[in-house]
Amino acid sequence: MGRFRKSEKKAAPAISTASLPDIVFMLLFFFMISTSFRQTDKLVQVKLPAATENVKLERKDLTSYIYVGSPIPAKQAQFGTDSRIQLNDSYRTVNEIRDFIASERESRAEGERDQMTVAIKSDENVRMGIITDIKQELRRCSALKIMYVARQLEQRN
Amino acid sequence: MARKTPDINASSQADIAFLLLVFFLITTTMDVDKGISRKLPPMPEENQQQEEVKINRRNIVVVKINSQDRIMVGSTQTDVSQIKDKIVEFLTNPSDDPNKPEKETKFIKGLGNYPVSKGVVSLQNDKGTLYNTYIQVQNEIVRAINELRDQFAQSHFGKKYALLDEERQKIVKDAIPQNISEAEPKDVKAKK
After folding, report:
1. Which of A70, A111, B43, B116 is the most buried (most CB within 10 A)?
2. Are A136 and A144 within 8 A, CB to CB?
3. Cross-chain residue pair B128–A129, CB shorter than 8 Å
4. Which domain does A85 fall in, by range?
5. Which of B132, B143, B188 to mutate to probe the A interface, most A CBs <10 Å?
6. Is pLDDT at B192 greater than 60 in this prediction?
7. Partner residue facing A131 (CB), from B11, B39, B131
8. What is the CATH number of the domain that holds A111?
9. Contact B39 A128 (CB under 8 A)
């Protein structure tokens, strides 16, 4: 039984944690590079429609988002369940899109303003009436590059 | 140099890094947005007469979606799954049918003369159409065009469209343009 001698005298050597910060920093840099800051809190419920022929949204920094959907449960008592448009952090009407686009345009560098994209994140159960209104308003303020954001679905044939 | 410098205690560095990491994890998003990209036509000036763009009837296929989400392509009702094939057939017009779009021989730089189809897909929807259906139809139309572009790229360059370099992609784009027209919204009265 001599083999299983209890080593009470010898303390187990401490595991060196000197490399732990390096690992964590590596993770940190990975996340810093691959992510972007969350810009707004969602006030509408959005279940994106699915599509197969999606293209990537390039230049996220030049993109403005318009959310359309029914209000989140916490806000339904106040605003009902009808589809609403969310710009930045509040519910807005179609007529306010013009100001929104103008201010978004103002905040971008001058040379890149013509590359601005408006991404429409709309719930799949929204009726087209509201989307058409948005599109018309966007045309009026000549924000012509738009994208219907959709979920990626695997190719079907 | 026999004297040793005392080690700096680095055990709290991990804590600091973790703190930063958690902060970034919470405040950032990683989802890449994807979707269907579109270019809206500019709004006509108010005092300017809406000029009729003359497009030959044979060059247009009208895709209509009504408020019950039923889809019409041309004059027949169709299912979402059939739209793609119909559009492909319409745009290629393999049998030179006089009711399908004509082809115009254009000179494309880097390729030479190529008969480019003059077909236009016109999409019309109702106010009551579901957004989902609208996106499905948009998706199918884009799919039809992507399929044609892939075919073209495969036969001319031996590669899929997405794998070509920019210059060649442009050639393919010129040869198979994506002509989708969205009608001015009309006030469609509910049919009862």
Report:
1. A70
2. no
3. yes
4. 44-152
5. B132
6. no
7. B131
8. 3.30.420.270
9. no
Give the Cα-Cα-Cα angle B157, A152, B66 (nearest 5 degrees).
Answer: 100
Put simply, whether A58 touches B (Cβ < 8 Å) is no
What pLDDT score was predicted for residue B51?
58
Q: Given pLDDT bands bounded at 50, 70 and 90, which one contains residue B186? A: low
To the nearest whole Å, the CA of B32 is away from the closest chain A CA by 7
B27 contacts chain A (CB < 8 A): yes
Q: Is A114 on the interface with B (CB under 8 A)?
A: no
Domain coordinates in residue numbering, chain B = 57-182
Q: Which residue has the tokens 């000179």?
A: B107
Say whether A13 sits in a helix, a strand or coil. coil
Confidence band (pLDDT; 50, 70, 90) for B48?
low
Residue corresponding to tokens 């947005």: B33
For residue A90, the model assigns a pLDDT of 82
**Quick check: is A5 in a domain?**
no
Q: What is the pLDDT of residues A9-62, one digit of tens each?
A: 677 887 777 788 788 888 888 877 777 666 677 788 888 888 888 888 877 778
Provide mean pLDDT across the span B144-167.
Answer: 85
Please name the residue that has the structure tokens 């590359």. A115
Verify whether the Cβ–Cβ distance A152 to B34 is below 8 Å.
Answer: yes
Contact A85, A68 (CB under 8 A): yes
Bridge partners (DSSP) listed for residue A92: A85
Indicate whether A31 belongs to any domain: no
- Average of per-residue pLDDT across B78-83: 84
Instruction: Please compute the mean of the pLDDT values over residues A115-123 and round it to a whole number.
Output: 87
What ipTM describes this predicted complex? Answer: 0.72
pLDDT at B47 over 80: no
Of B134, B2, B168, nearest to B65 by C-alpha is B134
